[in-house]
Design brief:
The complex is a heterodimer of chains A (380) and B (524). With 380 residues, chain A is mostly helical. Chain A has one domain. Chain A has 13 helices and six strands. In chain A, strand 1 and strand 2 form a beta hairpin. Chain B has 524 residues and is mostly helical. In chain B, helix 2 runs antiparallel to helix 3, helix 2 runs antiparallel to helix 18 and helix 7 packs antiparallel against helix 14. Chain B has a two-stranded antiparallel ribbon. A two-stranded antiparallel sheet of chain B has the order 3-4. A two-stranded antiparallel sheet of chain B has the order 5-6. Chain B is 73% helix and 6% strand. Chain B contains 19 helices and six strands. Chain B folds into two domains: 375 residues, no CATH class; 131 residues, no CATH class. In chain B, strand 1 and strand 2 form a beta hairpin. The chains are: A mainly alpha (380), B mainly alpha (524). Chains A and B meet through helix 3, helix 4, helix 5, strand 2 and helix 12 of A and helix 2, helix 3, strand 2 and helix 18 of B.
Chain lengths: 380, 524
């Protein structure tokens, strides 16, 4: 069907698709919950916000789980090195995510206001913390991570959690948090009414503005102040099974921007990020929820592609030993596994999109005060 | 080398999170199916009480499901965080079923579960029924794929070591899927889930019958649970026996440890009903044996022998020596000598490479291991006999107790006289913990019985762990225990509260507490 080299490239695209799928769907769950305690003043408003995502959050979360599984299957080295190296960051994300399934299901099971308010803040953490941490993790990819591989391919990581909080990485965290909050705000604009809708609209404006500034700022910082990596040699045949330690990597300043110079069409990604942010801002200003949501979606696709294109072919660079850096050429599964998984994904991803869409259309409509009051025991 | 403390703590953390996860999974598997059955009856008969049953048991299902999802998240990422070398070494094979589980099963289950809870007014009767069945199908498919992954850890078929990439690689996908261990495990495990769901519904319905409230609701729930439970427990036991046959074939060490078979006895071997295994001295005190039974279960014949632990250790010692040779050749290959002779020589012994790696616990340089280190590594190939022996017996005893209960409950329910048998109802209520005892001890047997391997005869557990510090793992272990305990307390509180409230919690006005309240206000 495909040769190994092409398959490797296809899987780089597919992992990107899964990440984008995750950010587009679970992204508005996280954004909406990060905004919920602020845009929802009364219990009914908060319940309305929660119930816009009640039928969907679990399905959306599977994008995250599947991205993890696909990483394991297609890029086992990346799965191994990244999650063990970023141990505490990963655990923080997990603990934050723990708050969501229980938070959604248990919050409205008791009438007690303290109980409900405690779960609201748990849901806030479950939305905001991963949104921030994913950005911080992505930011660190551009800085390189302190790990090395030994001869038997065991990785040792020599950094700490706090070392991840480099100002550039924090800025990347702001990019992703504001982006997903704008996405969540636009979602709430589409799915709620009255004051909740108005406050969501304001929040979307603010978040879209912050996103635009942070995204442009991160781009400038990347161009001016960060050393990039480039693959200069060592691999004679990209279509072979490769030992990561055999490559030569150089550190040079044009590294992270070299792809944009070499393949000008890739510049469409950062442009889409900016255009999306602007569209989200305008949609919120003119009170068009659908337009704002389209804008935030475009911003997400643009931002993830911007990062992916800049890093290519690197996926997990090492600051300690650049030759240990993992790329999409040498950190991948065997030809056979990639081929089988491509067939499986080719069958199931379209199927998933179809039935997910059906579920959304079935549950579409605004969740209002009236909705909550007419069914207080059947909803979250 | 990673410290032994990190390995032990990582094992403890994995065991804790997996066992905790499996408090919720079997109930999800079983209840999802029971809900689908109840809703099918509703759609066929049109009787409101069946819809109420789906909604009420669905509420309890939701409380349980939330923690199942929460604890499942840890499982998906823990291989990477705590078992990085494992993930690298076998990710090419092991990652595939996990990713397929996500694509084929989790998406299905999780996308439709939202419609199950919130789609009652938005879907037609039949559409909603289809949604419920899809949730049940999704949860069962996820069990299938995770057990294919687990079955491969027990019996790693369809894969070969590749010295260039320094890992195991997939060569036969069909063998991975149709791994006999995985297939048997799947049916045994999902049927155990159905039993869990059935006991849950049976016990709580019995409570209502004992309290003499919501009788129509409770009676119908009791009937469905006893029939479904009886069918399920029979499959669990039959498939458990089949499972005994499979491990007899591929995991001789596990079988010998479960049975505390120190010596290889002439066929057919006896089954030890009771005994106190003593691993130091390699004998079992106070044993009571049933002649022939083990030989029949494990080999399905009267003339094949079941190998004893002492002989297995001797056999493993030979394989360790062979593995040292394989390791020496691997070092040559990795060092750049890729001559045809070296490759052929390595290919001939690489099936024992895993045994060579067992020595890594004692020495970085496998090739020069001392006689004493070889002996120690050979001793290590036998898991802890006493705990396996008794966990297995606890599982089997729970299974047979439940068989007796379901048989009586089904008989009483068929004759419609369960209400006049308070002893039966109390027995059912008290049996509530049994399926969990069986599931937890069963997993202990399956996973501890695999030690010292994370991948049977391929990768030792102590090599599989991530290069973390003890502080890291202590920290995460304590945090997980604390957070999980808090969540469990909350879950139990809600579960008990709503189970006690019963269908009155649906606020339909048709059930006990609401009618009682209505009657009182009418009197006043």
């Amino acid at each position: 069907m495909f040769d190994y080299e092409t398959l490797k490239l296809v899987w780089w695209v597919l992992i990107g698709v899964l990440l984008i799928g995750f950010a587009l769907t679970d992204g508005f769950d996280m954004g909406a919950m990060a905004l919920m305690p602020f845009v929802g003043k009364t219990d009914n408003e908060r319940r309305a916000a929660i119930n816009t995502i009640a039928p969907h959050w679990d399905g959306n979360q599977v994008w995250f789980i599947t991205a993890g599984g696909a990483l394991f299957a297609a890029w086992p080295m990346v799965y191994a090195v990244a999650f063990s190296g970023l141990y505490w960051a990963m655990l923080l994300v997990l603990f934050a995510l723990f708050c969501r399934p229980v938070g959604f299901d248990y919050r409205s099971k008791l009438e007690n206001q303290q109980w409900r308010s405690a779960w609201d803040w748990a849901l806030f953490v479950g939305g905001a913390a991963p949104a921030l941490l994913f950005g911080v993790a992505f930011g660190n990819l551009f800085l390189g991570l302190p790990f090395r591989l030994d001869e038997l391919m065991r990785s040792t990581y020599e950094g700490s959690f706090f070392a991840l909080l480099h100002p550039f990485a924090l800025l990347a965290g702001v990019v992703s948090l504001s982006m997903l909050c704008a996405h969540g705000g636009a979602w709430l604009m589409m799915r709620t009414d009255a004051e909740l809708h108005q406050r969501s609209r304001k929040a979307t404006q603010l978040c879209a503005l912050v996103f635009l500034l942070a995204f442009a700022g991160a781009g400038a910082w990347l161009a001016l102040g960060i050393q990039g990596f480039s693959l200069v040699g060592g691999f004679s045949d990209l279509g072979a099974a490769l030992n990561p330690l055999n490559k030569q990597v150089s550190l040079d300043n044009s590294g992270w921007l070299a792809n944009y110079a070499q393949y000008p069409w890739t510049r469409i990604a950062p442009l889409a990020g900016l255009a999306g942010g602007l569209l989200a801002l305008l949609g919120a200003l003119f009170n068009r929820g659908g337009v704002a949501f389209l804008g935030s979606s475009l911003a997400i696709v643009g931002t993830i592609c911007t990062a992916g294109f800049a890093l290519f072919p690197f996926v997990f660079p090492s600051s300690l030993d650049p030759a240990s850096s993992l790329t999409m050429w040498d950190a991948v599964s065997s030809y056979k596994t990639l081929g089988i998984m491509l067939v499986v994904a080719g069958i199931f991803v379209p199927l998933i999109l179809l039935y997910t869409l059906w579920c959304y259309t079935r549950m579409w409509g605004r969740v209002t005060n009236q909705t909550i009051e007419s069914n207080p025991h059947g909803l979250y | 080398m990673i410290s032994e403390a990190v390995v032990d703590l990582s094992r403890l953390q994995f065991a804790m999170t997996a066992m905790y996860h499996f408090l919720f999974v079997p109930l999800t598997l079983g209840l999802a199916f029971l809900l689908a059955i109840m809703e099918s009856v509703y759609v066929m008969t049109g009787k409101q009480v069946y819809k109420d049953m789906v909604k009420f048991w669905g509420k309890l299902f939701g409380i349980n499901f939330a923690l199942g999802v929460t604890t499942g998240l840890t499982m998906e990422f823990q291989f990477g965080t705590n078992w990085a070398y494992y993930s690298h070494y076998v990710g090419d094979i092991f990652g595939a079923p996990l990713a397929i589980e996500g694509l084929m099963a989790f998406f299905l289950e999780s996308t439709f579960i939202g419609l199950f809870f919130f789609g009652w007014d938005r879907l037609s009767k039949v559409q909603h029924l289809v949604v419920t069945w899809l949730v049940a199908l999704g949860s069962n498919l996820s069990a299938l794929w995770i057990l294919i992954a687990n079955g491969w850890m027990q019996n790693p078929v369809g894969a070969e070591f590749n010295y260039q990439t320094m890992r195991m690689e997939l060569v036969d996908f069909g063998a991975l899927i149709f791994n006999p261990v995985a297939q048997v495990k799947f049916v045994h495990t999902v049927a155990a889930g159905y039993v869990t769901g059935s006991i849950f519904v049976l016990a709580i319905s019995s409570y209502y019958l004992l309290k003499k409230r919501d009788l129509g609701f409770a009676r119908r729930s009791f009937a469905i649970a006893s029939a479904f439970g009886l069918a399920s427990i029979l499959s669990v036991i039959v498939l458990g026996d089949e499972s005994g046959y499979e491990i007899g074939d591929v995991q001789k060490t596990k079988l010998a440890a479960i049975e505390a078979e120190w010596e290889t006895h002439p066929a057919p071997a006896g089954f030890t009903l009771f005994g106190l295994p003593n691993q130091e001295e390699m004998r079992t005190d106070y044993e009571v044996k049933i002649p022939w039974a083990l030989g029949l279960i494990a080999t399905r014949s009267l003339d094949e022998e079941v190998k004893g632990i002492k002989d297995l250790i001797a056999e493993h010692e030979g394989r360790i020596r062979n593995g040292m040779g394989a390791y020496a050749l691997l070092e040559q290959l990795r060092g750049g000598d890729k001559s045809a002779e070296t490759i052929t020589a390595f290919e001939a012994v690489k099936h024992d490479l895993g045994y060579g790696l067992l020595l890594k616990k004692y020495t970085g340089n496998v090739v020069d291991a001392s006689e004493e280190q070889i002996k120690l590594a050979a001793q290590d190939t036998i898991p802890h006999v006493f705990s396996l022996f008794w966990s297995f017996r606890a599982m089997v005893a729970s299974g047979f107790l439940m068989l007796a209960l379901f048989a009586c409950a089904f008989w009483a329910s068929a004759r419609k006289n369960e209400e006049s048998k308070p002893w039966l109802l109390r027995w059912a209520l008290l049996s509530l913990p049994l399926p969990w005892i069986a599931a937890q001890t069963g997993w202990y047997v399956a996973e501890h019985g695999r030690q010292p391997w994370s991948i049977g005869e391929v990768l030792p557990t102590h090599l599989s762990a991530s290069s973390l510090t003890t502080g890291d793992v202590w920290g995460s272990l304590i945090a997980l225990v604390a957070f999980y305990s808090l969540l469990l307390v909350i879950e139990m509180y809600l579960m008990i509260k709503f189970a006690r409230l019963g269908p009155s919690s649906l606020h339909t006005g048709r059930y006990h507490f609401e009618r009682q309240a209505a009657a009182q206000s009418a009197q006043a």
